[in-house]
Amino acid sequence: MINGSLREVVAGFGSLLTGMRITLREFFKPSVTVHYPHETLPIPGRYRGHVILVRDAETGKSLCIACKSCEKACPSDCIVVEGIKREGEKRKSATAFQLDFTRCSLCGSCVEVCPVDALEFSKEYNLAGTDKTRYTQIDLLKRVEAGKS
Amino acid sequence: MMPQTERSAADGPQETFVLNLGPQHPATHGVLRVKLTMDGEYITRAEPVPGYIHRMHEKMGENRTWAQFLPNTSRIDYLSAMTYTHAYVAAVERAARIEVPLRAEYIRVITSELNRLSSHLVWFGAFLLDLGGFTPLLYAFDDREKILDLLEGLTGSRLTYCYYRIGGVCNDVDEAFVQGTRDFVAQMRPRFGMYRDLVTDNVILRKRLEGIGPISAELCRRYGATGPVIRGAGVPYDVRKVEPYSVYGQFDFEIPVFPEGDCMARYRVRMEEMAQSLRIIEQAIDRLPAGPVMAPSVPRVLKPPPGDCCFAVEAARGRFAVRIVSDGKEIPYRVKLRTPSFSNLSLFEEASRGMLLPDALALMGSLDLVIPDIDR
Amino acid sequence: MMLSLPQLAEAFGQLLRNGATRPEGQAPEHPGSPGAANLAAPATACRLTDYALKGYHLDVTVSPGEVVSAASLLDGEGFALDAITGLDWMADGQMEVVYDYFHPRNALRVVVRTRLPRAEPVVPTISTVFPGANWHEREAHDFFGIRFLGHPDLTPLLLPEDADYHPLRKDFALS
Amino acid sequence: MNTALHLAEPYRLLLFLVGTLAFVGFNAAYLVWLERKGAGRFQRRAGPTEVGYAGLLQPVADAIKLLSKQLIVPPGTDATLFRLAPMLVMAPALMCFVAMPFSDALAARPLNLGLVMVFAFGSIHVLAIMLGGWASRNKFAIISAARVVSQNVAYEIPMLLVVITLLMITGTTDLNEIVRQQGGGFWHWNILRLTANPLMPVTFVVFYICMLAETNRAPFDMAEAESELVAGAFTEYGGMGFGLFFMGEYANIVIGCSLATVLFFGGWQSPIGVWPGLFWFLLKLYLLIFSVIWVRWTFPRTQFYGLLNLSWKILIPLSLFVLVLSSVLLKFL
Questions:
Q1: Do D43 and B139 touch (CB under 8 A)?
Q2: What is the pTM of this model?
Q3: Going from the N-terminus, what domains does chain C have, and what CATH number goes with each?
Q4: DSSP code string of D287-303
Q5: What ipTM goes with this model?
Q6: Distance, in angstroms, between D186 CA and closest chain A CA?
């Protein structure tokens, strides 16, 4: 019996040494962390930041036709679109496009449902501000007109 | 906290006290409260008090269209969002008689299994943290990060994917994902050897888990506990095998079962399961068929015919079932979410009786609870 | 022992006083569906369903008084409780309680359902048979106000302790 | 003998008081940094990097933070005991350094009962933790206080048994004399004095385990056990009260490792037999401290009864056997 328990003690002690060998091995390996914000990783192409309107390269305007499909598809009611039909244009165009990002769950329904592919995901993830309205009322139309895309 | 002692006449000289574990406690992994009646360090009664992050997902389901409920499904058990979404979309597909393309099913299996791996890796780390070992958590997160990178590249999100759609998946896999997954499988295999040497074989861990917190198959049955809890009690119950859904029937994998019923058995089940998930992923990647990833005939306004139907999947924590009831309208009449953590926790009161506090916390850790999964 | 579906259906047939095992097709309109056809459905019925369409094999409708004996029957056959949930059929003035069962060793899923008057939804507890039903019944009480007779403790489980509302009732007003 | 340190007694004492305070304070502060850096490396991350070069000013930032916090005495506690406990954990730790021979001449007061004194004062911190836990009026703290007492009672015994084994071989309790005996190369160190007792390495392992348990270090950190008892005896402490407990823990590690260095690794003696001095002492000390950190970041916490079983069923019989073996060898060889 003593023999058996002694063997158990020795085996247990051995398992501890094995563990320490492994952690020591890891000790000398390079670190795997990325030191944000000093360094950042590339953002994958399909990354889902908050949605933005696509800027038409020719006109510099949004492609949105104010059909409100996205507004209807949104599970969280975070999109408000207004539009009118301007003189001499075939389709309606948006006069207001507001996003309440604080309610958005980034499901992508709006992007998928858009018939003219006027919506896309941004690559922005550094979102912080002192003013709530900065994220409850993101004016996407103004953003397109300001040339940001 | 004020010490207060309860003494009842029947107890005689024995004194017990109430220890309020949580809602904020390092071992409850979220906001779960457990009201412990203690006799010294021995638990005489442990009464879990869930509900601190109850969000009423089921009511939300009755207030939006069938498709609009999809983002919610990622947020019930946020660690296995894929499997939860899978159960919901499959239930709706079953109700609306939608045939899902084969390629989409394969992609669902690959992503679900990757998600199961990432979920088990979090459990592994958190469990070791409960037992006071910090380092394995970081190693597990290192591995999990690779999975999250893969899924982020595919779906655009790292945790709450909302990737499956009723009738398929929203993005097709690209070559980078396929290759990345192959590389990951190759990298992950040797890591299990490291985990075994560092953690599983460690004498301290074995002393803490072997024979601790026994849960019998009968106890599991009476409480409806599933997943690694029932498989750690010797019952080979896995929805992927018992009620094969999606294309799981086409893969060659085993259901790890350990009959001991103790914390170590549940631990080993999950460790083995990770290796089995790798097998499934490997086969699915090799046999990934070509074709569309969305069913062609999904109506834009979905109105499943009246009636109810169920769909169950094997989530990382056990059997997750969705019961939907349609009244033929475009919004669900009822969405019932049967979550595994709810049933798994309900046996805690009976199983923890008479245990020492640290052992009971090991038992709780071995149940792999995700609190939003209980509270919904 | 491998339990076969017909055997189980037979057992239920004996259990139900006036309900008989009906093969698929002859069954009346599905009791889970709303509308007038519902009320025409018999109080008790037991029918085999197409698993591929429904996700369960056997659909049993019992009277409220029979849920405990149904649970005992399934308990004896080695079933486990999946979930208990309510369903508010406000238009019919009824409340349905749905008991989902699964079998940990056989691929068998059974649904037992019963209908209660919506004004006073009272049904005996099955937590005496399945201790796991305790929490499920508390949850159904939270959400629907269904009272489970003989339940040891119906205080709110997921809702706040002082909750006196039942959010999954169809007339629950969303603020 | 080094003559530079033969100063007048009051100056000498003052110098050593300041020196010891500085040494303990510096170590307590920078061992936290070392621990965090070490933990980072073991876990493949960088540890503190932001405050100063490689995070070297992190302890300073921590100290400022802790000092600026309000000291809260929870209502209903025994305020006197509650305040006394953190001091009680620190002061005896300082006392232990009085007899510690840093080099041949560098010791505050060479005592011929040095070893006994270190043990006498080293045991007080248990009392302090118990007092802190008891005075906190918190259930987690009280559980922790009860654990600490039984843990330390259990580990004091094998620890003293192995030290007695060593004393039989060295024949003195003067720490400096013990070091002098181990001069002339590493094969003269006590850990390798296999002629006196072939089980000397085992003796060291027992001593090391007991040291971890006595200082409440992982995997024996029953008193703190953050995943069970939140922070155990320290739950109600904030600001510098907590800071003192924290520093006390590191001070005790330094004492334990210093003692291990002196008793088993030849203190300030050189492993190759030439140039003995302070350098060797510090090198061995920090290597041992590193191993303590290494152990902490490798293993999970033991279960409490596992801990007691280890002491009563394995370590005590083992150390008793070593003791008997040594005395038999001493008697007949």
A1: yes
A2: 0.87
A3: 5-149 (3.30.460.80)
A4: HHHHHHHHHHTT-PPPP
A5: 0.83
A6: 23
